[in-house]
Amino acid sequence: MSRKTQALAALCAGLMIAATGCGGSGDSGGDDKTITWWHNSNNDPGKGYYEQVAKDFEKANPGIDVKVQAFAHEDMLTKLDAAFQSGDVPDVYMERGGGELADHVEAGLTRDLSEDSKDIIDQIGGSAAGWQVDGKTYALPFSMGVVGFWYNTELFEKAGITAPPTTMEELYAAFDKLDEAGITPVSLGAGDGWPAAHYWYYTALRACSQDVLESAVADLDFSDPCFIEAGETVDEIVAQKPFNKGFLSTPSQTGPTSASGLLATGKVAMELAGHWEPGVMQGLTEDKKGLGDKTGWFPFPAVEGGAGDPAAQLGGGDAWAVSEGAPDKAVDLVNYLLSDEVQKGFAENDMGLPTIPAAGSSVKDPALAELLKVRDESPFVQLYFDTAFGESIGGAMNDEIALLFAGKATPEDVVKATQEAADKEK
Question: DSSP readout, 32-66?
């Protein structure tokens, strides 16, 4: 049991919530007629869509009151962390899976949905694996995607880039062409940490074989030299100086000067981000269209000499979970959120890539449709490392990667900090 889990378990015992278990009622105070629901779709159309979904559920379930709270992504993560520390978790919330979920399950904070959501789990299929612990399913993924470069097709054309880069050499050449055209190549919200970490995750995915990565997750062993090679490739990328000014303190998604905002408003040519990017950009432009028909997407390029499959992708998703002490109706709400009807609306509003097969054809954005194709054809999708390894190891890894981008750490330092954090968890 990790130190974090021990602390949470001790907290649960200290709270002595005999009737409901540790976790649960958020602001509902244990009222079985009230469901608290937290999500991160804080911009329209996603925010408005979820408000309507809540109203539709209330209409179908007279007497139920769904209290919806929408947060910016980083704010939601901070508030969820505080909620887990206090044991006062919202009834329905977003789980990212991996080691984080395992901690919550071990502390008795998250409800087992294996039986109550069996039919939906069967529809989701293999995508549910990231939210399973010891063969039981504790959350239902509603969006699964992969990370890649979102780009402005108009700015690429202006710079004379006729095709998206497929190798690192081609990516560096694209940087040069954009610079020559007076266009900042890439925005990066390193102020939030994880956007910078995604570069190292991807270079590790390209440098390391699938077997090495899977063994690292299972054994917490980072001795393979491919992990240092990943940092060396990141060093090469940073040396190209492709990023926006002040990228080390730039936020990822908050406001027009964030990394997403710079891309959405035509200030940069591209950004490495996940499937959420079109929806985020729509909320950051006055016309609520983001880049609109100028939106392009391409996967992270191949790295010459790497042992990883160049078709493998980095990704993951978000899942709806129910806290252990939530009313039973909260499970009904989560099942409704994974219905064909709601998932189709989710796709139509460009909020992400749905996991229910019936909703796949509702993805109307051409770039998202291309991403969906890449996801489904990928031989291997590596879950975000900070999620796969959990908060303690992932946090140490991300912090050192941020220092790597700042020129204050070496590729060896990243591996050392990660291994030291991993050794404490063994």
Answer: TTEEEEEES--STTHHHHHHHHHHHHHHHSTT-EE
How does pLDDT run along the chain (426 residues), one tens digit per residue? 332 333 343 334 333 233 333 444 444 445 689 999 999 999 889 999 999 999 999 999 999 999 999 998 889 989 999 998 888 899 999 998 887 888 899 999 999 999 999 999 999 887 787 898 888 999 999 999 899 999 999 999 999 999 999 999 999 999 999 999 999 999 999 999 999 999 999 999 999 999 999 899 889 999 999 999 999 999 999 999 999 999 999 999 999 999 999 999 999 999 999 988 988 998 899 998 899 999 999 999 999 999 999 999 998 889 999 999 999 999 999 999 999 999 999 999 888 899 998 999 999 888 888 888 888 888 888 889 998 888 889 999 999 999 999 999 999 999 999 999 999 987
DSSP track, 245-274: TTTTT--SSSSTTSHHHHHHTTSEEEEEE-
Torsions phi, psi for 284 (to 5 deg): -115, 10
Interatomic CA distance for residues 52 and 369, integer angstroms: 25
Give the number of other CB atoms < 10 A from CB of residue 218. 8
Architecture per CATH, 146-314+384-425: 3-Layer(aba) Sandwich (3.40)
Cα–Cα dist 264/254, whole Å: 12
Q: What is the pTM of this model?
A: 0.74
Domain 3-144+317-373 CATH (choose: 3.40.190.10, 1.10.150.20, 3.30.870.10, 1.10.357.10): 3.40.190.10
Residue type, 74: E
Phi-psi region of 363 (alpha: psi -120 to 50; beta: other; left: phi over 0): beta
DSSP for 380-407, please give it.
-EEE-HHHHH-HHHHHHHHHHHHHHHTT
